[in-house]
Amino acid sequence: MNAATPQLTDTVFTFAQQLSSTRRGARLARLLAMERLIAWEMSPGIIERAEHVVAELASNAALHGRVQGRDFLLALTLDNATGTLRIAVSDTRGECRPAIRPERGLDDGTGRGLILVDALADRWGTEPRSPSGKTVWAMLVQPPPGDPKFREVTGTVD
Q1: Taking the model in full, what pTM does it have?
Q2: Residue 125: strand pairing partners
């Protein structure tokens, strides 16, 4: 008798949405990203990290990358084979490249967001976006369910 062996499929999920370059658009980007990551059954730790990263990148796009009448783009890509989530936010101001400015003081009201992105993301960077603009991206890696650290964080049991 031949029994079928279950096959795991490597799946890539994607989500993309254009949003207005406003505070409301930045807030909506965070809410839409959280809804999508919950639907994709990401771990709570990744969802929490992603929420802060999306909020910061979308806020920067709306504040620093804003061009009147132009939207910004939020794109999420989850590669189940590698457990990697890519968060990308694109705007139309390619000349405004983000940089970490560690000289900011704790009392400054702004300027520490990319320090937060750097701390939460496994990797992040920027790339030009054709025909004009830039994309700021961040990668978050979700450990496989068999990883002991993953079980500690999520409370899952084998």
Answers
A1: 0.78
A2: 137
Q: What domains are there in the chain, each with its CATH number?
A: 13-96+111-154 (3.30.565.10)
The closest alpha carbon to 65, from 139, 140, 126, belongs to: 126
Length of the chain: 158
Single out the residue of 81, 112, 86 nearest to residue 99, CA to CA.
Answer: 112
Share of the chain above pLDDT 90, in %: 52
State which H helix or E strand residue 12 sits in. strand 12-20
Gap between the Cα atoms of 77 and 141, Å rounded: 12
Q: How far apart (Å, rounded) are the C-alpha atoms in residues 93 and 132? A: 7
What is the Cα–Cα distance from 86 to 150, expressed in whole angstroms? 19
Tens-digit pLDDT profile for residues 4-51: 555 555 789 999 999 999 999 999 999 999 999 999 999 999 999 999
Helix (H, G, I), strand (E, B) or coil at 55: helix
